[in-house]
Amino acid sequence: MSGKEFFLNRYQQLGWKYRDVKLRQAIRINTSNVKGKNLVGRLETLGVHLQKIPFLITGYWVADSKVSAGATAEYLLGLYSIQEAAAQISASLFSDLKNKKVLDATAAPGGKTTQMADLMQNTGAIVALDVDKRRLNALSNHLERCHVSNTVVYLLDARQAHNLNVKFDRVLLDAPCSGNFASDKDWFKNRTLKDIERNAALQNELLKKTSECLSDEGELVYSTCSLEPEENELNMDWAIKNLDFEIQEVNCIGDNGLTNVFGKQLDPSVARCKRLWPDQTQGFFVCKLKKGSK
Amino acid sequence: MKAKVITNFAAQFGLQVALNPELVMEKNGRFYLVNEGLKPLVRHDFFYAGVFLGKAKEGKFFPSFNLLSMLAKQGANRVVVDRKSAWLFICGRDVLTKSVLQILGSGKKNTNTLVLNEFGECLGFGRIVGRLNGEVQSDEIAVRNVSDVGDFLRRERY
Q1: Is CATH 3.40.50.1260 correct for A24-83?
Q2: CA atoms in the 13 A half-sphere facing the CB of A92
Q3: Are A76 and B152 a contacting pair at CB < 8 A?
Q4: Taking the model in full, what pTM does it have?
Q5: What is the number of CB-based contacts under 8 A between chain A and chain B?
Q6: Is the distance from CB of B94 to CB of B126 less than 8 angstroms?
Q7: Is the pLDDT assigned to residue B2 strictly greater than 90?
Q8: Distance in angstroms (rounded) separating the CA atoms of residues B148 and B158
């Protein structure tokens, strides 16, 4: 079960009609290193014209540019990062990050890690994990470039996070996923339902294991760039029924999470999740979970 | 010992820095500075921690750009260069005498100096090999590039 027609039919059943999208490059200002207004002006003089992203505090689209936004002195000095607009949402949903102990469970290449460090103004501590050494090198370069000082990185599978013997106040689980066609032109050719089920099982395991490291009343933000409900709403439905979590309301763009998936009725609170069908951004899903105190 | 590598390097820029040796961590020749809050979370098998300070290889120390920025803030020897030269410097080029806007610190020949842009941001460092000031309109080299932030792009390439 694969192919463009198969997936488009699924999306239609979920209430969305396919349309082609062209993604715009986006940047995020690292406010610990520069004031937003100053940076916008500096980039303008270089011929990088920005447009404020209305649903993000520090996000801008690159409207047009005479130079590569990834090769300016301002980028190399860590004044901003290149980060897709939807990908900037996850870290912004935590109610408070300053002075908190945060687990970034699948951190590389580090866009969200540096974003959290910026939101924390380098207070507290972030433990960032990933299983791919090459990607950890990219993460390390991002941390150095952005002048992050509150993060420790381990080459470790997040399913082993309990071995750290730390209880975290916040967990970001930006889970490995099947991706979506908006950010991968060969997506329909390469993906099958089996891949999606395999990823959903891994995400499920990651949810279970990382939730064990979360302190009572702590927050876990779960996100993927997948459009497939098996990796999103179905996992959240499972989490609230099995892991002492409740889904929190969030204030961000996107449709409400689906509560009926191919005839299966989910918990009504799954509607509090946000599903972004590809449009202004790539496809994305995000959910904020709060742990109970059982 | 770990902190000494860093303080010796800082001394090359005319700066005496005090580092708490308890907060300097070393892993595979790479040095990191952690704070009191982060330290309890740093196990022996960490990959990266706190502020990366630089790496030692074959008896030579290669500073990180974080360390260079820290030294700039603490008053190390530095030169401020014009906009065009700042861009050329991060592309790996040397600084010409005519591009130096300001000299802060000793400015002695054959010593190291940080190179800053007009916003006071540290772009890297180099070796003073020529005159830093004077009515020089020729293309005399003042600071030979040793390391610059363009390295972040070069790292991605390899």
Answers
A1: no
A2: 15
A3: yes
A4: 0.95
A5: 82
A6: yes
A7: no
A8: 17
Strand partners of residue A153: A128, B48
pLDDT at residue A294, as a whole number: 57
> Quick count: other Cβ atoms within 10 Å of Cβ A249?
8
Q: Decide if pLDDT at A41 tops 60.
A: yes
What's the distance, CA A65 to chain centroid?
26
Query: Is the CB of A144 less than 8 angstroms away from the CB of B123?
Result: no
The Cα A175–Cα A167 span in angstroms is 20
**Which regions of chain A carry the CATH code 3.30.70.1170?**
24-83
Q: Show residues of chain B in contact with A41, CB under 8 Å.
A: none
Q: Structural domain boundaries of chain B?
A: 2-70, 77-157
CATH topology of domain A86-291: Rossmann fold (3.40.50)
pLDDT of B156 > 80? The answer is no
Looking at residues A215-230, what average pLDDT do you find? 97
Structure tokens at B107: 């400015």
Q: CATH 3.40.50.150: which residues of chain A?
A: 86-291
pLDDT in tens, B25-77: 999 999 999 999 999 999 999 999 999 999 999 989 999 999 999 999 999 99
Give me the CATH code for the B77-157 domain, please.
2.30.130.10
Question: A247 and A288 in contact (C-beta within 8 Å)?
Answer: yes
pLDDT tens digit string along B69-106? Answer: 999 999 999 999 999 999 999 999 999 999 999 999 98
Residues on chain B touching A144 (C-beta within 8 angstroms) = 52, 64-66, 152
Residues of A with active-site annotation: 225
Query: A48 is written with which tokens?
Result: 């990088």
